[in-house]
Amino acid sequence: MAKRDNWLVRLHPGEVPARYLHWSYSLALGWLAAALFVICCATGVLLAMHYRADATVAYGSILDIVSVVEYGRVLRSVHRFSGEAMIVCAVLHLAWVFLRRNRTGLPKWNWVVGAGLAVLILLTNFTGYLLPWDQTSYWGVTIGASMLDYTPWVGPLAKQALLGGSAVADESLVRFYALHVVVLPAALALLIVYHLYRFKRDMINRRDAQNADVAHPGRPTMAAALPTLYYWELASLLAALAVLTLLGSYVDAPLAGPADARQPPNPAKAPWYFLWIQELVSYSAVIGALVVPWLLLAGATLLPWLPGVGRPTRPAGPRARWCWNAAFLAVWAGVVALTIVAACFRGQNWSWIVPWR
Amino acid sequence: MTARTAAIICAVLCCLSLGWTMVQQRRVEWETYQRQYVDALSSGSGQTKGLPGVLETRVDSFGVRRVDRCTTCHLGVSNPDFVGQPPPLSFHPRIGRHDFGTFGCTLCHQGEGRLLTQEGAHGFEPASPQPLLDLRYIEASCTRCHRGDEGDRVAPKVASGRALFMMSDCFGCHQIAGLADGAVGPDLTEVGLHRSAEALRMALADPTSDVVHSPMPPWDPARSDELDALVTFLESLRGAREAYVYQP
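C-alpha cells for the assembled complex are given below, as produced in the milestone run.
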C-alpha cells in the first residue's frame, strides 16, 4: 500500500509499541470519549435546528422536538446520554492511564491536557443541562452555580459572568446556549486535536530516545500504528452509536415540568456529576465547595509531577506506586459513594431516605 | 480479535441498531386513533383514505402562543356525526361563541397541547403542574377571561368556592392579592398555576399530607360538592400572569 499523507495520517503516530495496538492496552476509552463527542456534535446540530434559546419558548420547543420532529425523541435522548457517557469515558480513561502508567511515569503535558478536557466536558454537560428549561434543569443549575459562591473573590464573579445576573434567568439561558453550542465544543475539538498531536509527539520523542540508547534492554517491539488505529477508532464510534441509538429508542432523556422560579422542588439536586459536591456541602460548605473540589482539581492536574508517580527515585520503588494507586482509587471510591448517596438516599430537606420504600 | 474484525462487527451491530430504531420510532400512538376515525368515516363506502397526520391549532390571542395538537387524536370534536362516540373520537358541543380554531383546547382543558402521547398530552408524563383539568373543575378556566360579576355568572362554582373561602375564614391565614391578606399559610395568589387540581383536593382533605406540621383543619371529604367548589376556585387563581383579555 502506498504511503498516504494527509491530515488524518498526520494526526496519528507513525510507530507505537506493538502492545499499544491491542484493545486491552487502552480499553479504547479515549477513542470512545472522542466518538461520543462526534455523536454529540452531529445530534446537537440537528437539535439546534429546532431548539429556541428563549425562556418563554425553550420548553415548548423541547416538547416539539419530542413530539413532532422526525426522530426528535431519539435524537434528544442520544445527545443527552452520549454527553453524559462522555464524562464517564473521559474519567475512566484518565483513571486507566494513571493506573497502568509505566516506569517512565505519565506523559506530563498530555496529562494536563487530558485533565483540561475532562473539565471542559463537565462544563459542556453543565451548560447543556439548563437548555430544556424544565424544573430539574432550572434548579439543578441554580444549585450547581451556587457552589461557586463559596470560592472567595473569583467564585461570585465567575457565577455573575456565567449567569448574567445573580440568579438563573433568561440571560443565563442565552449565555449557556452560546457556551454550549459554540464556545465549549470548539474548545473541546481544538483540545482533542492537540491531545492527539501531543500523543504523537510523545511517541516520536520516545522512539528517538530509544534509538539513542540501542543497548537498552527493555526496548519494546514497534509496529506501524495505521491502519490498526483507524479500525479501533471506527469500532469505537460504531459501537457507541449502536448502543446509544438502541438505548435512546427505549429510554427518554429526562424532562420535568416547565421551569418555575417560584416553586423550588424539595429536594433540589445538582446534575449528577456535581452531586458529590452537594453532598459534601451538606456537611460543611467550606470544605465541600471550596477546599475539596479545588484541591482535587489541582491534585489531578499536577499528578504527573508528584514524587513517586513519575520516574521513581531509587528508594521509593514499587511501594510508592502502590501508595499512589491506593490513594487515587480511594478518592474515586469516595466521589462515587458520595454521588450515590446524594442521588438515591437524600429526600426532602436533604434528609436520609430509603429509595426502595 | 483483530481491529479489523472488531470494526466489522461494530458496523453490523450499528446498522442493526439504527434500522431497528427507525422501524420502532415509526410506530406512533395517534395513528391508531386516526385509523379508527378514518374507518368510521368510510364504513359505508368501504374505501380508506390516507390519515390526516399531525393536526394543530395555534392560539396567539391569549398570552404566550399555545400549540394544541389535541385534534390529532380527537378528530371528531367538530363532526356532529360523532355525537355519543367514545373518546377520543367523541363530538364536542360548541360552548357559546368559543370556536376551537380561535381558542384551541388547552386554554380551557389544560394539559400539554404540544405532546402527542396520551400520557404526555394529558399532562402526567413531564410532571405537569397543569394536567388535563377534570370536568368537575372546568369552570376554573372560564375566569381566565371572564372576570368580576360576569365571571360569577358564567362560573358559579368559582363564585361559591370563593364564598366558602370567605365564610370558612380561610382568609385569616392565606393571602390572595386583592381578596385576602392572611400571613400564616402559603400565598394562594397564583396557586392555580403551580398546583394541579388533584394535589389541591388532597391538600384540602388532608393538609398534613402536603405540609407536615400544617395547622389547617382538614375539610371533610364527605362534603364533596364543597370540595369541588373550593378546588375550582383555587384552580382559578392565576394571579396577574395569566389574566387574559380576548383580542380578536
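Chain A has a mean pLDDT of 90. The beta strands of chain A are 15-17, 222-224. Further analysis is deferred to the final report.
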